[in-house]
Amino acid sequence: MAGREFDGMACFWRQSVAVSLALMLTWLACGTASALAFDNPKARPPRAKPHRRSGGESVPPLPLPATPLRRSERKRQPAPPALIGMITFTGQPQYKIVQGQRRRVAGQKFPTTQVDIASLMRYANSKLKIRYRYMQTSLAKFSWDPTELPLLYITGWTPMPRLDKAVIARLRRYLYDGGTLVLHAQCGRGEFHLSARRELAKIFPKRKLAMVDTDSPLFKAYFNIPQMRLRLGNEPVKTVPPLLEAVYLGCRPAILLSAVDLNCSWDIENKPIGGGLLYHREDGLKLGVNIITTTLANFQYARAWGTQKQYPKPGPDSAGQELVVAQVAHAGDWDPTPHGLANLMKYIRQATTLKVQFQPQSVGLTDVEVFRHPVLYMTGLGDFKLARDEVLRLREYLSAGGVLIAEAAAGRKAFDVAFRREIKRVLPAGELKLLPPGSPVYQRPFQITTVNYTAMVKAANPALNAPMLEGITVAGQLGVIYSSMGLASGWEQLGLAYNRGYADTDALRLGVNIITYAMTH
What is the pTM of this model? Predict the structure, then answer.
């Protein structure tokens, strides 16, 4: 029943997003045609309030200089710490090729506006009971230290300036060090959105922008946002699933890009913008608060995740004597917890006499190398689909006695839905069933009857304390062991705030038992 409910939810979400995405892409294609003619009303300075002094009134003359009276003055309160740096590109150098040589020229002015970020900071400070501010900065002045500015913000309605290789490298390092980058197209203009995609592709060429699913903390962290209202030009306001793309580093979104204006200031109901695509102000503010909330909650995790860990390499005498658990590289986000498996192997060495290798290896399901590994491990954050030859190879692998260990990273439902669908293609006659309390997986080396879950699980189900592993039997033995609750985030021990999974200690104990079972059966 649960699987069918998940499948129905995923199907509805995919259909809704497909319709909304088609609307957005159609708009982007049309929007670029009138780039030069577009005038962003959000960027116009506010009108000055009219003076209400009658013609007969006059300003009294200033008094003559006098000795000021002694008085005590209030000290100016210190400015709150900055949370968000708004990139203005002011003075950003540009380069062009002149007679075969690269020459620096004066930077072009990049039009932007502060109205949305200013409104958001006031709203977030009030709702979250925090005291932060935003500040303007440029890529030339910024220190690239996430502890100084945890979040960078870029918005505009004209093409985004091209970033040189040095800036790209610094920006990549900033994100690895725990920073977050948010970009959105003012009035949904395709001129900015398409150019932003071009620049983002340079930062992480192997990490693609992907649609954020509605199960993400970005839509649940403070406000529950299953849908958002938007308006396209003068058309009626529509309600759609939130449309937001992200590049993930680990289990957190490091880059967020919105093709729709994350509007926090403009009244779209009473003042439609011709040539614009904007979210409703109330919904934009709520999403902005969720982005700030997740950025703050993920910050320590993000800092720790970006730290390179060193593990002992196998010696020449250990070749072929140590178990190597190979991680499946599939078409989705297949490696969100790169420290998890190595940390588990380290714990196995400390807690058991098993000989395992710290350094995990990745393998594609179509590689001939797959049969050299008795145990495969698969994880991910979002949707994925196996190619037909991958399905056939995995079926052959499991039929030959191999074991597949899989888990939804941080308990993300999008991966859970996808895995249940794909494993049904691999083993049509098989069925994922909850392992009974007496299963050998729970018996050795640790006797596991109860477990602790993370705060995220406890908030939804306070009474849950039993392990929830599932499995598929192949030729009389468990060939597939699966966890819809996150395991590897507990193995990493990095303190991921939005982990729907097992607490660190029990995640490690379960991991040891699962690997032990796989090796001995």
Answer: 0.86
